[in-house]
Amino acid sequence: MNIYTKGQIWAQRGVGLIEILISLAIISIGLIGLVGLQFSVSTSNQDAYVKSQATLIIESLSDRIRINRQYQNRDDTTVPALDATDNAYTILNNYNFRNLDACDGNDFDCYCEELPAPPAVMNCRDEGAVDAALCTPQQAAVFDAYEASCMAASIMDNMEVGVVALNPNPGAAGDPVGPNSILTVYTAWPATIWKNLDKAANDMCQQILDAQGIVGDFECVYMDLVIGDGQ
Fold first, then answer.
1. 12-16, 60-64, 115-119, 173-177: segment of lowest average pLDDT
2. For the whole model, what pTM was predicted?
3. How far apart are CA 51 and CA 219, in angstroms?
4. CB within 8 Å of 223: residues ≥ 6 apart
5. Of 55, 72, 101, 214, which has the most beta carbons under 10 Å away?
6. What is the pLDDT of residues 183-210, one digit of tens each?
7. Taking every pair of C-alpha atoms in the chain, what is the biggest distance, in angstroms?
8. If you average pLDDT over residues 97-114, what whole number do you get?
9. Are 96 and 160 in contact (CB under 8 A)?
10. Helix axes 15-67, 137-153, angle to 10 degrees
11. By the 8 A CB rule, do 141 and 150 touch?
């Protein structure tokens, strides 16, 4: 037979409330961790989406350069011969609308909803083989840079796209980016910041952007392209 005194019975009061408070604290900590995990997953998904879209941009621009390779690789032996302006693909000013007038809205709405008026950008789209046939290779190169810039602007305003020859092969006639130069096609976007930690910027990415005079910490994807002699 168990015998309880009055004092012992009163000593048990309040223990259940303490257990409830401890349980609530544990649940709260778990919920905070769950929210942090969901945020991390969301950030990772966004990064993966941006990277996949950026890869599509450089693949598209690389294909356009291959199609127009005779223009990019002109020298003093090709027909037509080298022209001093035959480097439109590697001119930074042709990308991200630097060659167009300033605009107060976002880049895509300002420059891509409607094609800019000539001669800044000629319409080289193959619309019934009419407009494209009117574009010179030089105009097609500028148009390719414009279209790649619009693809980047549709993802985010601060995404950079361009082409740079880090180790160019100068032509005999003075072409700074001669035939068989290695072209690096890139897209770059600001490195995201989470938990007050900068994501490590790719060294090669920074080298590319430094060569272009673009300042800031960026993530990027890039592709090296050698298109051979323009025949």
1. 12-16
2. 0.75
3. 9
4. 58, 59, 62, 184, 185, 186
5. 72
6. 999 999 987 654 444 455 567 888 888 8
7. 113
8. 90
9. yes
10. 170
11. no
Its sign, for the CA torsion 113, 118, 121, 125, is positive
d(CA 204, CA 162): 15
Q: Please confirm whether the linkage preceding 80 is cis (ω < 30° from 0).
A: yes
State the number of CA atoms in the 13 A half-sphere of 105 facing the CB.
8
Q: What is residue 4's predicted lDDT score, i.e. its pLDDT? A: 52
Q: How far apart are CA 74 and CA 80, in angstroms?
A: 8
Q: DSSP string of 23-87?
A: HHHHHHHHHHHHHHHHHHHHHHHHHHHHHHHHHHHHHHHHHHHHHTHHHHT--TTSSSPP-TTTT
- Phi first, then psi: give them for residue 130, nearest 5 degrees: -105, -60
Q: What is the spatial distance between Cα 231 and Cα 215, in angstroms, rounded to a whole number?
A: 37
Tally the residues of the chain: 231
CB 152 within 8 A of CB 159: yes
Whether 175 has a pLDDT exceeding 50, the answer reads yes
Sole residue written with tokens 């005779």: 70
- The single residue listed with the structure tokens 């941006």 is 50
